[in-house]
Design a protein that fits this description.
Rossmann fold; single chain; alpha/beta; six-stranded mixed sheet; globular; 11 strands; about 30% helix
């Protein structure tokens, strides 16, 4: 199962002399769900873009299923990787089906057009994401949770076996956050390997693997219970953490409410 995502001495960032992630040696086994956590600005999105071969690494290497995605032509890369960026503005007049079909463009050659096979795959992807009833609805008439399910279908429509998702549950209410997470769990059960950037600690503790990025560029990976400890999160985020124990017995780290920001003072009843 080790032929999933493998990072070897990988450094990423916007400039060679100032990498945000330095020399990362991390592994996510095939057919598992992994999460990436860290404070804002430590390079989570940059790391995901590098794994998706959108951004070149500063040094080191990336392998997905034993293949370097940076060496693949666009069509082969699209068949390997489904990438969902954090913010992606789309015209509200597009329908769900039209948005999902855009994920097939790399497979359609120099002059893209929607073939019957593309439409069939788009409808299949919508069905896998419990969004088939939204096929003809315009994006401007969808809730946040509906839109995220459609975007996930777009990431899946090229037949990708690796999903790289940047905060797919952000801006969603608790119900829709859990729905997205359950949906990802179902896709992983079908053989997809998913790596998700998230700030949801409660959901992250239910992943198969966790990668924690620190402000010094170091990255740690392993089982969530071993990586996402209160001590490690305090070092990563610069605030103290405690634990809450769920009825299932899972210990979830939570920020303590007894700290004060250097510039914002909490009222006495917090």
């Amino acid at each position: 199962m080790a032929d999933g995502i493998k990072l070897s001495r990988l450094s990423v960032g916007h400039a060679v002399h100032t990498p945000t992630v330095r020399g990362a040696d991390l592994v996510l086994n095939r057919g598992s769900l992994g999460v990436v956590l860290g404070r804002n600005g430590v390079g989570k999105s940059t790391l995901l873009e590098t794994i998706a071969a959108i951004r070149a690494p500063l040094s080191g290497s990336v392998e997905l299923g034993g293949v370097d995605p940076h060496q693949l032509p666009p069509a082969a890369r699209a068949s390997l990787i489904g990438y969902l960026p954090q913010n992606e503005g789309m015209p509200s007049s597009l329908t769900a089906l039209e948005l999902v079909l855009m994920g097939r463009r790399a497979l359609q050659g120099l002059w893209p057009f929607d073939r019957s096979v593309d439409v069939a795959e788009a409808r299949r992807a919508l069905e896998r994401c419990c969004a088939d009833s939204l096929a003809d609805r315009r994006l401007g008439r969808m809730s946040g949770g509906e839109f995220q399910r459609v975007r996930l279908a777009q990431a899946l429509v090229s037949g990708s076996s690796f999903l790289l998702l940047d905060e797919p549950s952000s801006h969603l209410d608790p119900r829709h956050r859990i729905e997205i997470w359950l949906l990802l769990r179902g896709l992983v059960a079908d053989g997809i390997t998913a790596l998700v950037v998230t700030h949801d600690l409660d959901l992250a503790m239910r992943a198969d693997s966790a990668w924690l990025l620190n402000v010094d560029g170091a990255a740690t990976g392993g089982p969530p219970a071993s990586v996402l400890t209160a001590e490690a999160l305090e070092a990563a985020f610069g605030i103290p953490f405690d634990y809450a124990v769920l009825p299932s017995g899972i210990k979830v780290p939570i920020p303590k409410s007894t700290w004060e920001s250097s510039c914002i003072k909490a009222p006495g009843n917090v």
